[in-house]
From TrEMBL:
Short name of one Pfam family: ECH_1
Top-level EC class: isomerase
Keyword Isomerase listed: yes
UniProtKB keywords: Isomerase
Enzyme Commission code(s) on record: 5.3.3.18
Highest taxon of the lineage: Bacteria
Protein's name according to its UniProt entry: 2-(1,2-epoxy-1,2-dihydrophenyl)acetyl-CoA isomerase
InterPro entries from the UniProt entry: ClpP/crotonase-like_dom_sf, Enoyl-CoA_hydra/iso, Enoyl-CoA_hydra_C
Keyword Isomerase: yes
Amino acid sequence: MDFQQIQVEIRGAVGILRLNAPDKLNALTPLMVSEISTAIDHIAQHCRAMIITGAGRAFCSGASLDPKNPLSPVDQDPSARDLGLVLEQQLNPIMLKLKNLDIPWISAVRGAAAGFGASLALAADMILASETAYFAQIFSKIGLVPDGGASHLLSRTIGRVRTMELMFLGNRLSAENALAWGLINRVVNDTQLEEQAFSLATTLANGPSQALGMTRKAIWAATDDSWELTLKNEREQQKIAGRSIEFDEGLAAFTEKRPAAFNGQ
């Protein structure tokens, strides 16, 4: 597939989606957002795991504020502005699409993950960050509120007061502190970021695809659901998983004391 502001690479069963406007720190333009949405669908259809990363020295600096190519035009008349419209029509559909994926996905973060870029990075199932990575809720700096589900993601992961501090002050959260707070999974050497992300994604791609897909959805649901509903959902998902070819293979491998060879069925 031909893209202008992103790159898509299929390596075996892993799809790599790379934001590719390094001179703009991968700021989101209307075209880039559209291409991201298309690429996610393509990878989900053809791969068993996905990586989202950024070209150059940043993951994503958030929405483009370039007057020549903004993600959302700013009307000179404040009463005519609706900056929530770009969320409703362009950004929120991407976040919902990622939440409902049938395959696991990883974010590989180098440099800035700011604004919506931070939400995109932190929505991943697993998050790898290089030593140069940082996460910034920059909205208060320009008089806006966090978006991309940031208030949901952060408050349920690092707690209310830490989330308040990050969002009120807009300060950078280093990869080291993000790891200590339980917001990300691993911090790796900058030169090894893509290699480590691909290794992890390959492990996921070689796993029981159906079970992993249901597991990620169960964890998302459990973030908000009651204990009782979580138990009910797990019961229904286990019924489906128990009827899969992957379960037959996993059980046979366990009995035969060998590694399971899952094939995505």
